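Technical appendix A lists one of the benchmark inputs used to test multi-chain prediction within the project. The record comprises two sequence entries:
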Amino acid sequence: MRATMSREKKHKIKNSNWQFWVIIAIPLIYAIVFAYIPMGGVILAFKDYSIKKGILGSDWVGLRYFKQFLLSPSSSKVIWNTLVLGIYSLIASFPIPILLAVGLNEIKAVKFKKTVQMVTYAPYFISTVVMVGMLMQMTDLRIGIINKLIGLFGVGPINFFGNANIFRGLYVWSGVWQVTGYSAIIYIAALAGVSPELKEAAIVDGASRMKRIWHVDLPAIRPTIVTMLIFACGNMINIGFDKVYLMQNSMNLARSEVIATFVYKVGLVNADYGFSTAAGLFQSLVSFLMLIAVNKLSKVITETSLW
Amino acid sequence: MKTEKKKFSKAPIGDKVFIIFIYVLLTLAMLIVLLPLIYIVSASFSDSQAVIANEVWLLPVRPTLRGYEAVFKNKNILTGFSNSFFYMIVGTAVNILMTILCAFPLSRKEFTARNKVAMIFIFTMYFSGGLVPSYMLVNKLGLVNTRWALIIPSAMSTYFMIICRTYFINSIPDELYEAGQIDGCTPFKYLLRIVIPLSKPIIAVLTLYYGVGKWNSYFDAMIYLKDQTLVPLQVVLRDILILNKIDYTMISDASALAAQRGLTDLLKYSTIVVASVPVLCIYPFVQKHFVKGVMIGAVKG
């Protein structure tokens, strides 16, 4: 009886496969057209592109553009800027959400907790354009409130956007302001899953709150922390285009030109397709390799990995 | 509340100090986020001369609506608004549809090829052709300078699709599918009659994610659109806030240069507020779902 049931079921299941294919057909076509066809376009990085000959017909140039990108002093500066900004961002913005989540987890007053969470979460919804606009208004030399504030202490006024040395700090800390509340949610969720028995046991053992956080909470959310860290490291070099491009001006360009903005300017503005694609491909490859390396490292050290 | 107090008074001194320290720290964090926002809103309602003269601290000085008048007299902002609404509504609808169509087959173990197909999608999260090949493709497809350029190339996010799939796997019991099969329910019918009605929370989350993303994005518009009548609000905002390209004809009595300068800043503050209001308005209502959605994606995704 049971055997016939399962055979019948299997038969039906086999039959329904084509219907799944029909359902997924449009997304699949979408992925092939808009993700895989451009992936094929990376051969542009190895070709001297001419519109007349098309991508496939253009002449091969081998690694010329890669050499050009890696060896020219102007682009090594761009690579350096990207790396430094990435590392600075990671160091500054990784631990703070964990602190916020652990802090919120210790608070028993529900209203206060919810208010803090809602407020710190809100800036995430502000668009990058508006965020940079706010920053520019508030750091304005004449009317910016930040210059007014530091003026009270006898400092300034400082031309925040006109000083290349300040660019990195401005970029990173405004980012911290914007996304800390959002990033904390993942850790809040993980902390909510920590077993209460462990905490009670710790209380019985006479552990102080600090000790409970250190010996119970943090170890419990370690897999989440490591997972997030792997992602963050893999993305380190992928300093996004949007905010940097908006914050950039001729005065801070020495520090603010990163691979993404460079690719845009060389590729779409100057129409140097091959060189720009090579630069972009370099960035993709580095972050991909970094993801794999960090994942492997973490597998060995902490036994947590993405795959 | 009472027991909480009792516990607190009984707690060892070290713990008390620690708790107070946390309260102070969190209050500080909240103020750091909140004060700039309050300042911007107050400045937007203040007299333009007061803004120039640095009289505004936290509360509006000599309240006025002139900044907002200037915002709503600006034709570019108004067309930007209506374009953004279009991109947000149509784009989000396409996003949701595509995400569900993709996530559902990948969530069913009866779909024998699901792991291989999933890999096809997941790989796109880590590797892409980059800017120039993508631009050339969109150009070749004839989408440049059409509204579709902001909708079709970004029709689905693999990351959200995986969150959606995780929800389908974990929140809709397998038994329902088996029961449906016995009743002769095809996968298509099952998706329509059972999965979608049971997926309201995740659809709410995705709508918000995609919607906010569409509302806030400007890069696609910047590279694909040339026609000023098609551009979304963010591009207009960039002109006003960052490039200082302000159409002075919209400032009616702009005779004195000083007044004009003051009104420009006032206009900027008002623009910042107006542009953020739609998103900040819906946010508290959906926050509950939102947190849930992030958790679904984070813990298992």
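Chain A touches chain B through 91 residues (CB under 8 Å). The mean pLDDT of chain A is 87. Comparable benchmark entries are summarised in Table A2.
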